[in-house]
Amino acid sequence: MKHRESAPFAAHIPELVTVPLCVIIFFSVLNGMMFNVAIPEIAREFDLLPSEVSWVMTGYILLFGLGSLVYGRLADQRSVRGLITLGLVLLNAGSLVGFVSTSYPMVIAARLIQASGGAAIPALAMLVATKYMPSESRGKVLGIIASTVALAAGTGPILGGFVAAALNWRYLFLMTLVTILAIPSLRKMLPDETGEDTRFDVAGSVLVGLGLASLLFAFTQGRWWLILPGLALLVLFIARQERTEVPLVPPQVYRNRLFRNTAAITFLAIGSTFAMLFMTPLMLSAVNGLGVFDIGLALFPGALSAALMGTVGGHLLDRKGSAFVATIGLVLAILGYLLLSTFAGGPVPLVAAVLVVGYVGFAFLQSSLPHTASSTLPPEMTGVGMGFYNLVFFMSGAFSASVVGRVLDVHRGSFCINPLAACAPGWAYSNIYLGLAALSAAALVLYLITFRGKRP
Asked: Quick check: 211 and 233 in contact, CB under 8 A?
């Protein structure tokens, strides 16, 4: 790699680039969260079945996750400045297509265009924070990014519900147009460096994309026979990475035990968080009888707390290391799920207060796990490694939401595992929250075993 601007650039990143990065991250996350509340309206307008309208979110997440991997790989070859500009242009082109959409296929096309551009934002923002920031500032910036993600995740349902109710769900597409304003400053401050080799593994991208799509379709649509071809495609993908000259994911990345274990920890821990974010609004609606706007209000204290505490986690990251912060995050997540399991279906203010614990745990994990992952990789593989990390991050959300949805379809709350659970209407949710606590506990054990005696 030729780093023409690395030295002077690194000295100014914390002061100069964090603001435009956080602007585009905020609206990228907001774009994903707002459409959760619009799905019922889209289904009614186009007379869709639940399995059909689910692709507004599922298709977006799938391409978003795959795009994160592709952008991470391209970042090792091409200019970060150019890639993030391309991503923002595509994101906003998709927004315009969605706003003028007159059919459901046009809506899906708009969401896929949005995802193909929006995927650049988390992939390259994490890369900038972990590769180009001075080491003494990385934790601070990752903490700010985590706070931004948490705030957008909590604001999304409220803002989405308000806009959809006051205007029309199509106006949600226009929210991302604000990100255009960040392009000039990002082009001025981001490094203009390119790699020696610009070849790209198109066949590998197709294999991993089709494999993940098959598995995701199997879970979301109940087409379980698709699991075998999905796994077969992923095996073919790995086989290709082992023999091709320029792989999409170099084998050194997934052979790295520390990085591989961090990816597994991320899948368990972040997948549990996504499951909580997906399931809690359903519980507040089905059990507590809240409307869209009231659900957003119940989620907002947790999101605001996470936004405030994310910066605290970032400062701790610089002082204590990512292992310390990740451990705190996992402990808080476990505690939050246990409390949610106990008070599922209880008074809304109590549930809102308990959510604060889980949200703060998510903010700590959001800042510490990317730092952990990047610290296990050599500098020349940071781009593709963080792209792979982002793929795992978003796929964990897609699969966890699918699994939770399937469990809720079958389990109607006829029994409760937690003897302290508040009331019968919330038993199904209580049991799933208990399962999320177990998954997070497994992630904590794996983290402690993996990084015992190390300070990532």
From this structure: yes
Q: Which pLDDT band, with edges at 50, 70 and 90, does 292 fall under? A: low
Q: What is the mean pLDDT of residues 154-160?
A: 76
CA distance linking residue 116 with residue 110, whole number of Å: 10
State pTM to two decimals: 0.79
* Cβ atoms < 10 Å from Cβ of 349: 10
User: For position 190, what pLDDT does the model report?
Assistant: 78
Question: Within a 10 A sphere around the Cβ of 418, how many other Cβ atoms?
Answer: 16
| 323 contact partners, CB below 8 Å, separation of at least 6 | 368, 372, 447, 451, 454, 455, 456
Residue listed under structure tokens 């809690």: 280
What would the pLDDT profile of 394-409 be if each residue is shown by its tens digit? 888 778 877 887 787 7
Give the C-alpha separation, 419 to 430, whole Å: 10
194, 78 Cβ separation under 8 angstroms: yes
Beta carbons of 144 and 70 less than 8 angstroms apart: no
Helices (H), ranges, 47-137: 50-53, 55-75, 80-99, 104-118, 120-127
CATH topology of domain 6-200+248-450: Growth Hormone; Chain: A; (1.20.1250)
Sequence ranges of the domains in the chain: 6-200+248-450, 201-247
Other CB atoms within a 10 A radius of the CB of residue 286 amount to 16
CB 35 within 8 A of CB 160: yes
Answer yes or no: are the C-beta atoms of 407 and 421 closer than 8 Å.
Answer: no
Q: Cα angle vertex 204, ends 199, 209, to 5°?
A: 130
Q: How do residues 84-106 score in pLDDT, each as one tens digit?
A: 999 999 999 999 999 999 999 99
Question: Tokens 């602007």 map to which residue?
Answer: 23
Is the C-alpha dihedral spanning 176, 64, 219, 266 positive or negative? negative
Cβ contact 67:210 at 8 Å: no
Which pair of tokens denotes residue 321? Answer: 């290391």
